[in-house]
Design a protein that fits this description.
2 domains; single chain; 383 residues; Naphthalene 1,2-dioxygenase Alpha Subunit, Chain A, domain 1; Rieske Iron-sulfur Protein
Length: 383
Amino acid sequence: MSARTALTDRKALPGSLIPTLAGPSYTDPVIFAEEQEKIFEARWFAAARSAEIDGTGAFRTVDVGRENVVLVRGRDGQLRAFLNVCRHRGARVCMEQSGVAKRNLQCGYHAWTYGLDGKLVAAPNLTKMPDIDRTEFGLVAVHLREWLGYVWVCVADEPPSFEETVIGAVAERLGGADVIDGWDIDNLVVGRRVRYEVAANWKLIIENFMECYHCATIHPELTEVLPEFADGYAAQYFVGHGAAFAEEAKGFTVDGSEGLTVLPGVDESHDRKYYAITVNPQVFINLVPDHVIFHRMYPVAADRTVVECDWLYLPEVVEGGKDLDRSVELFHRVNQQDFDACERCQLAASSKAYAEGGVLVPSEHHIGEFHTWVTRQLAGAGE
């Protein structure tokens, strides 16, 4: 049986249950390497917050699948992305995670030097090699888009449609591509960022985010604010539906107390509601009236994933020194609770008791669509 195959060989399940992926899908490094190649290196990947790469020469490096990408702002103010690989002998050009290049990007091995536009501009004895095309031997460019204030990159030679796979995922969830404009995410600022080291496979994290069967069990603070989540279904899988705040909740805070300034573009139909969106393969977006929570996953190994979570607010809220703690604490606890649950699953995923996987109850059946999506990507079938 293939490690990524669902339980097709198992005795017929009752109609209320459908199979999960097999256990090795969450533990096998060979399968993880295949996912890196066919999913993370083939799809659009949210790499960084655009505003944090600010000023000429500012750069940030990020792992995208098995590749390392350098994002750099040019003299023309534009962001560009390149594979972080010197064209001479393959050394990594930028060794720091972030910084500012004074004029150019220079490899520390033989001093091959690249302009902020990626073009080869200098190298020892380069003038004695007049047959070298400085553009052809420049850094290898990576496809880049900016949306919702984030830099999205795709290292594939031919990326999928950004409009269909990224904007389309948001449009499908909210009932229109322009609905998210009300939160004006481009112009929000990071009020808090938490980086989580999760000892679990990336798919376990997505599966957890997709269902609320577990909410009544492990999320007491969340279900106090969003009581419908205690019923076990995931509101994010109903087009245009936002989970309503409890009548007694004044805001999306850990104790239900008053929140912060409501975002000006959030209309009455979206006020006092929570929306959650998954953009495969590594982004979760949570929308509430006064802030946005933006998760980015960075798979590191079959059993380890880094999750970077931004809490985004109006600039005047952050610059004015407003107390963000009660606002941040609610979803920080949710994250801790979720990631602990994912780590519990990872610990048992290699057991013979889970070799053929588990089962999904009716309120989790939509996870099967995600499993089908993963299987199709690995088979090279695309969307």
